[in-house]
């Protein structure tokens, strides 16, 4: 009996992930990314009306996570509608001049996009970098999740986390269960979207809940034969955070793309959220 790999592993890259040092301003490759870029252009221009026009009538805005192993922070109580957003930014742009927002990296799949953006202060101080996810449907932003921020982030911020995910992909593609498990923290948490598609990150899988079940799952999976191969399509990273679009190619099926966010600390994966499909 074959074990289904796709709902449970949101892994693994055989191709070298690009370094943020080489990244310039992001260019949209699809409609979702185009809307996200317009959002940051309106923010940079101080255009409250243009900004509001990019949002759905009802919106969800989430602040930074406040608890361990969580991807979604508390929901904002100030901006739940397009009109509230317009009023907030009309006031904000009068009180303080707008700052330039530069999207350095962006990875997307269907209606979800994850970006690394540099926020440049007018006084020329080092930029603060943010890691943010968007949901865009019918050309309008429905949800924004603020995931992480890093003051004065270096160009190489995220490189160590990328290297860990690269190692994970290499271990998977050669079917090395022990090497895969060794890259996870013993208390690492997994989550996948299919159990709750309305949430970012979904819910934990039923079979991989701790280190012992993780080791058992991968040993059984790879014992079946040639593992599903995973290659990188695109990625974005900041600090401990890496978002990847991966292409899964099983021996007996067509390729499928997946969007995943990992959190990596001291070379070990501590969280893995399988976002889409």
UniProtKB/TrEMBL annotation:
The UniProt keyword set, sorted, is: Signal
Where does this protein come from, organism-wise? Answer: Luteimonas salinilitoris
Question: Where is the SnoaL-like domain positioned along the sequence?
Answer: 40-142, 166-270
Q: Which domain of life is it from?
A: Bacteria
Please list which residues make up the signal peptide. Answer: 1-23
Q: Which Pfam families match?
A: SnoaL_2 (PF12680)
> Would you tell me the protein name for this molecule?
Nuclear transport factor 2 family protein
């Amino acid at each position: 009996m074959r074990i289904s790999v796709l709902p449970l592993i949101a892994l693994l890259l055989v191709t070298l992930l690009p370094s943020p040092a080489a990244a310039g301003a992001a260019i949209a490759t699809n409609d979702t990314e185009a809307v996200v870029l317009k959002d940051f252009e309106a923010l940079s221009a101080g255009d409250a009306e243009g900004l509001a026009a990019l949002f759905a009538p009802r919106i969800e805005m989430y602040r930074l996570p406040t608890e361990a192993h969580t991807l979604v922070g508390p929901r904002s109580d100030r901006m739940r509608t397009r009109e509230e957003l317009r009023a907030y930014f009309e006031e904000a742009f009068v009180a303080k001049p707008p700052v330039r927002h530069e999207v350095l990296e962006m990875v997307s799949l269907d209606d979800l996009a994850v970006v690394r953006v540099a926020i440049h202060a007018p006084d020329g101080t080092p930029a603060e970098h943010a890691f943010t996810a968007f949901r865009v449907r019918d050309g309008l932003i429905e949800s924004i999740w603020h995931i992480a921020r890093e003051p004065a982030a270096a160009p190489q911020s995220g490189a160590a986390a990328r290297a860990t995910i690269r190692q994970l992909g290499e271990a998977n593609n050669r079917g090395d269960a022990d090497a895969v498990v060794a890259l996870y923290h013993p208390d690492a948490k997994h989550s996948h979207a299919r159990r709750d598609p309305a949430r970012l990150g979904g819910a934990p899988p039923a079979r991989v809940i701790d280190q012992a079940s993780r080791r058992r799952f991968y040993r059984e999976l790879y014992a079946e034969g040639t593992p599903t191969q995973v290659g990188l399509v695109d990625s974005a990273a900041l600090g401990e955070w890496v978002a990847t679009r991966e292409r899964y190619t099983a021996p007996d099926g067509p390729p499928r793309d997946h969007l995943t966010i990992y959190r990596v600390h001291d070379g070990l994966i501590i969280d893995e959220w399988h976002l889409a499909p």
